Structure formats: C-alpha cells, structure tokens
C-alpha cells in the first residue's frame, strides 16, 4: 500500500539551503507519494519548481503544485518500477526573502518485495509448479502401490 511522505520546509537560508523535516534525505517505497509543504511565516514564500538533478527519473506523476496552493504545496508519486540505486537527487527551486534559490535534497527508494508485483509473480509460479509436482508424485506412488 502506498504511503505519503510529507516533507515540510521549515526555514530558508541566504545561500539557498533549506531546513527540511526529513533533513534532506527521504526514504520511500515504490508507488509512495511525496508531499512538499512550506511552514507559514518563514523566509520561503513558494516553491517554483522541483526538477531532477541527476540519474534516472523516479516519478510516475512528476512533482507539480497542488491546485490553489500558490506554490506552497507540491506533490508527486513514485513509479512502480523506479531505479533502486543510487539515491535520486533533485532540486527544489524556491523564492522568498533571498530571491530565487535552489536546494538539492535526495530521495532513496527502499527495495521492497511486498510492492514488487513482478517479483511476487516470479515466486508464485514456481510455488504452484512445485505443489503440482509433489501432488502428482504422491498420486502416482499411491496408484502403483499394490493393495492387499
């Protein structure tokens, strides 16, 4: 089941850094949602963009502003089969008391058997074949057994 990972922007600095509730490193799973919000009355007035910095993209629904939030809330959803290594580096572009700034946090995807449908299918097929084989062997042994 998908989880929501809220990332609150708590403070902005003149050098572009942000104080984030996750300390700039979020750990998420496949299909999880990421929600970025801005604390009221801080140096950051709005997020102007969230973009990939390096590596493969991990989002099925790209980061975008929540309608009517004036850039204070952004959401995205991680895809079902994102690359698992290395951490996804992205940039938060923001504006506020210090003008236009950029900060580069990370998101790491936890490998999870429970959310990997293809892996579960791979486990299920051999299990069924194994059970059928054992059943067939037991049935054939019983059939060939001489009864007194």
> Mind telling me the CATH class of the largest domain?
Mainly Beta
Helix fraction bin? 10-25%
Please tally the β strands and state the result: 10
How many structural domains are formed by the residues? 2
CATH homology superfamily of the largest domain: Cupredoxins -  blue copper proteins
What is the 3D form?
Answer: elongated
CATH architecture identity of the largest domain:
Sandwich
At CATH level 3, the topology of the largest domain is: Immunoglobulin-like
Rounded mean pLDDT score: 85
Backbone CA Rg: 24 Å
Which series of helices and strands comes N to C?
A: EEEEEEEEEEH
In terms of per-residue confidence, which ranges show pLDDT below 50 for 5 or more consecutive residues? none
Distance between the termini: 56 Å
Main sheet: strand order: 2-1-4-7-6
Quote the beta fraction. 35-45%
SSE class: alpha+beta
**What is the number of helical segments per DSSP (H or I, 4+ residues)?**
1
Largest sheet: 5 strands, mixed
């Amino acid at each position: 089941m998908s989880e929501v990972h809220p990332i609150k922007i708590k403070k902005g600095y003149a050098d572009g850094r942000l104080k984030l509730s996750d300390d700039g490193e979020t750990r998420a799973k496949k299909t999880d949602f990421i929600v970025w919000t801005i604390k009221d009355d801080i140096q950051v007035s709005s997020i102007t963009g969230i973009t990939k910095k390096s590596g493969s993209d991990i989002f099925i629904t790209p980061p975008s502003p929540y309608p009517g939030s004036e850039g204070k809330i952004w959401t995205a959803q991680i895809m079902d089969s994102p690359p698992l290594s290395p951490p996804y580096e992205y940039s938060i572009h923001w504006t506020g008391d210090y003008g236009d700034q950029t900060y580069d946090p990370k998101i790491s995807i936890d490998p999870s058997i429970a959310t990997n449908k293809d892996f579960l299918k791979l486990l299920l097929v051999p299990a069924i074949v194994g059970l059928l084989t054992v059943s067939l062997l037991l049935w054939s042994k019983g059939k060939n057994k001489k009864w007194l």
